[in-house]
Design goal:
By secondary structure, this protein is mostly helical. The protein has a single domain, classed as Ferritin, CATH 1.20.1260.10. The longest helix is centred in the C-terminal third of the chain and has 30 residues. The termini are far apart.
């Protein structure tokens, strides 16, 4: 369990709903403190989204998925604090983390406006799309930009977990669509 949570440190990068069409990368290179900021913001956003789903949904599959996300990301935030402390990094706000914050506000507004089956469908469709996008972004941007070896190794080790969460979201999407 601890290893799974450890490999999830940057899993939160994946679950902020409604990313811009081109993902969350920016034109300039992210530094390690900026990557840490992106992770912290995305983890907290996902906890917030999961909490909305836990309150609004009556669908057992959506609730179970949201419980998993909330639990994973609370633990991840704790681990993120430990890692940035160990590495003596101070997360640095940046254009990417600002995009995540802005999109989170928009996503929460849209989620809060829906209910019932429409809510469940919106929540899980965005989770699927986001997972697909984040896998691409972690592979093409975050891993290549990470300078610290521990950070880079962690990002590389998270990819299987990202794919597992995508598969879980797709499975729930198949059930919700019926």
């Amino acid at each position: 369990m601890k290893k799974t949570i450890g490999t999830c440190l940057f899993l939160g990068v994946m679950l902020c709903l409604l990313l811009p069409k081109n993902g969350f990368s920016q034109s300039s290179k992210l530094t390690d403190p900026e990557i840490a900021s992106v992770a912290v913001v995305a983890n907290q956003n996902d906890i917030d989204f999961a909490n909305i789903a836990l309150k609004k949904s009556n669908n057992a599959d959506i609730k179970q998925f949201a419980q998993t996300m909330a639990a994973d990301h609370k633990a991840v935030i704790d681990l993120a604090v430990a890692l940035v402390t160990k590495l003596n990094l101070t997360p640095k706000d940046n254009a990417t983390s600002q995009i995540l914050k802005s999109n989170a506000a928009s996503a929460m507004q849209k989620l809060n406006a829906e209910s019932g089956d429409a809510f469940d469908k919106l929540y899980i469709e965005n989770e699927v799309a986001y997972h697909e996008n984040v896998i691409k972004e972690v592979e093409s941007d975050l891993i290549p930009q990470a300078q610290n070896a521990e950070l880079k190794a962690l990002l590389e080790s998270v990819l299987p977990t990202l794919r597992t969460h995508l598969e879980h979201a797709q499975m729930v999407q198949g059930k919700v669509g019926k």
